[in-house]
Amino acid sequence: MVVRFGPGVELGWVVAAVGAGMDVVGWYQISGQPTEAQQLPYLASATIPGAALIVAGAVLVGARRRGAAGRDRPAQATAPTQARRDGLWALPDGSYLHRGDCPLLDGKPDAFEVTGVRSGPAPRRACPICEPDLVTAP
């Protein structure tokens, strides 16, 4: 994976580093206070915001890397593997008949055109998504 360093990644690392610095300062200040009441201001003003900045920096770095990874991948074909338009289609192990433009057939290269409705112990039924017309189908 190629990581493109841009303002999002650099800013994310800076924000995370500032958050880590705030956590260290907050921890140091908290450790020097004997009671919880004296520790609470340092917890509220340094440690908790520091943790939030670390998370925000991680989100900035992660979002930029995800975007870069998405651009580096080759574009996938969105068109179906076959030009299916008319007739009824099925999958080898399927129990439904589909129209050619049914979204359930997208990316399924083993789909085949059905010339007649199969009879026998398990006849195929109409797909509930595309709802092909089994009566007028050829």
Summarize the structure.
The chain is α+β, with helices and mostly antiparallel strands. It has two domains: 7-72; 77-138, no CATH class.
Give a written overview of the molecule:
- The protein has 138 residues and is α+β, with helices and mostly antiparallel strands.
- It folds into two domains: 66 residues; 62 residues, no CATH class.
- Helix content is 45%, strand content 9%.
- It has two helices and four strands, in the order ααββββ.
- Strands 3-1-2-4 form a four-stranded mixed β-sheet, with no helix packed on it.
- A hairpin with a 5-residue loop joins strand 1 and strand 2.
- The relative contact order is 0.13.
- Keywords: Membrane, Transmembrane, Transmembrane helix.
Blueprint of the fold:
Blueprint: H1 7-31, H2 36-72, E1 88-90, E2 96-99, E3 112-114, E4 125-126
Parallel strand pairs: 2-4
Antiparallel strand pairs: 1-2, 1-3
Helix pairs in contact: 1-2
Low-pLDDT regions: 77-82
User: Total number of helical segments?
Assistant: 2
Compute the average pLDDT: 80
Distance between the termini: 50 Å
The helix/strand series, from N terminus to C terminus, equals HHEEEE
| Class of secondary structure makeup | alpha+beta
Q: Please tally the β strands and state the result.
A: 4
How many domain units? Answer: 2
In helices, the fraction of residues equals 40-55%
Shape: rod-shaped
- Neighbour order of strands in the largest sheet: 3-1-2-4
